[in-house]
Input
Amino acid sequence: MQKSDRMKFKVPIEADIHEEVVAAHNEGVSAEMLNRVNFFVGDACKLKDYSSEIGTFDGVTMANLLCRLPDPMACLDALPHVVNKGGVVVMVTPFSWLEEFTPRSKWLGGFRDPVS
Output
């Protein structure tokens, strides 16, 4: 999106069904503003390892991620390394913990704790 004002991509609808959509900038977005936007794809459990490579951000979005990680605390513990002081983390999660993604011992809730 930094190099073009439009980008086509496919959004999964169900199984093998996808829909092509277009993302576009609003009019008047300057090149300076475009250069301030960065996207990074990597292992969220190793976010701390990437911090020197990717730098820090004023805002981080984590959507439907936490309950699909093998070690969600590793991701959460790394946030101070990639979020600027005063920055914002937007986290959206259904907390639908499943052992196929996250070992039960790593769940952040979702079960009754006999101690507490």
